[in-house]
Amino acid sequence: MRWQGGRRSSNIEDRRGMGVGRPLAVGGGAATIVIALLVALLGGDPGSVLSTSSSSGPGTGGSGRTADPAQAELEQFVSVVLADTEDTWPDLLRPYGVSYADPHLVLFSDAVESACGMQESAVGPFYCPLDERVYLDLGFFQELDQRFGAPGDFARAYVVAHEVGHHVQNLLGTSERVQAMRRQSPRDANALSVLQELQADCFAGIWAHHAEQQRHLLEPGDVEEGLKAASAVGDDTLQRRARGHVVPESFTHGSSAQRMQWFRRGLEQGTVEACDTFGAASRGQRPSP
């Protein structure tokens, strides 16, 4: 991925090493066992399962910075990818009457306090709609490489773009509508979560489409890296590794096939209309787990 020399975002908050205490609890069924934490690794909407708490103030940066060259390069990479999403989404949302507000991305280590509650690094990257921030421990990229077998710059960019996709859902009002539907029909909560996650995958594909068409950021093999990352974090893949069997009705993020399909759809078509996972489900077009 041709990211070196790209514009860096000014919306990075560095809270690494700030000494946030361990959470009293990591709320919701998705946190009851280790694999459930891994299932939640691409976050989505922790506000749906966590008790709301008071937001911590924005990090001022600096106190958590590290002299580790590898960490410094990852920080720069994340900043460039975030900046590129900032250049992509405003024009795409303007026809919907939505003014794109840049999300902040919070770098943290070990644990972090957000408006959606206090979380540990084990939950992976997540987006909190209550404070419009993406939260990321850079150590997750090592997990993505070593534990999930999805290495490469573009696989990491997919993670950032997916979380920004949840921010887009928040701006479009999708997150609020999904929460309302979950309250009205609790038995459909998992299925609705899957549709929301698949749409964020598709939105990540939209970003990749425009990053290539307009700025030529992609290199040979990048698409395969993104698809591999999407496949690696499918619910069926994670459950099979943890349990040896798959329970489709417990899916909250979608199967590997679904995640790859919707990421590819956004990548190939590059339009918000192409990412209507909810409409596709109502028409019976959702792929089988």
Structural class: alpha/beta
- Written as H for each helix and E for each strand, in order along the chain, the element string is EHHEEEEEHHHHHHHH
Largest sheet: 4 strands, mixed
Cα radius of gyration in angstroms:
17 Å
Question: Share of helix among residues?
Answer: 40-55%
**Rough outline:** globular
Numbering strands along the chain, what is their spatial order in the largest sheet?
A: 1-2-6-5
Low-confidence stretches are 21-40, 44-64
Number of strands: 6
Q: Number of DSSP helices? A: 10
Terminus-to-terminus distance: 31 Å
Number of domains: 1
Oligomeric assembly: single chain
**Strand percentage:** 5-15%
Average the pLDDT over all residues and give the rounded result: 83
Highlighted features:
two-stranded antiparallel ribbon, 4-stranded mixed sheet, 289 residues, alpha/beta, 47% helix, single chain
Structure, explained:
- α4 crosses α7, α6 runs parallel beside α9 and α7 runs antiparallel to α9.
- By secondary structure, the chain is an alpha/beta fold.
- Residues 21-40 and 44-64 have low confidence and may be disordered.
- It has one domain (12-282).
- The protein contains 10 helices and 6 strands.
- The radius of gyration is 17 Å and the shape is globular.
